[in-house]
Specification:
The protein has four helices and four strands; from the N terminus they run H-E-E-E-H-E-H-H. With about 110 residues, it is an alpha+beta fold. It has a single domain, classed as 3-Layer(aba) Sandwich (Endonuclease, Chain A). Strands 1-2-3-4 form a four-stranded mixed β-sheet, with helices on both faces. Strand 2 and strand 3 form a beta hairpin. Helix 1 runs parallel beside helix 3. It is globular. The termini are far apart.
């Protein structure tokens, strides 16, 4: 039987894959401790889903520190946020993706006009 964290990770992963093309650029990493990580290297964004039943997971982690030191944006959501507000979670992630330097849409626009 899947844990709450595993189910939340699956919901987010499937939602990222079905959402806008920008969100399908994320890769799912292993589960570490009480968190699951999704990374977009191109957009330099990490999304962490943590188990809301484990308060220690909310605080900054070594993983978070290492990614932010390398210039990544680090977003954290609890499994409860995934269960109850997946649309809001996806909107936050999308907003960061659209602000990412990797998301230069001028080439896309030119291609769609040809």
């Amino acid at each position: 039987m899947k844990t709450h964290l595993e189910r939340a990770g699956t919901i987010l992963w499937e939602s990222l894959q079905r959402a806008a093309p920008q969100l399908s650029a994320f890769n799912r990493l292993q589960t570490f401790s009480q968190s699951i990580f999704f990374v977009s290297v191109n957009m330099r964004i990490v999304v962490e889903v943590y188990d809301s039943e484990h308060p220690a997971a909310r605080s900054g982690t070594l993983c978070e520190k290492r990614f932010t030191e390398r210039g990544y944006i680090f977003l954290k959501f609890s499994n409860r946020e995934i269960f109850h507000s997946i649309d809001s979670v996806l909107e936050v992630i999308m907003n960061y993706c659209l602000c990412s330097p990797a998301m230069d849409t001028s080439d896309e626009h030119e291609m769609s006009n040809n």
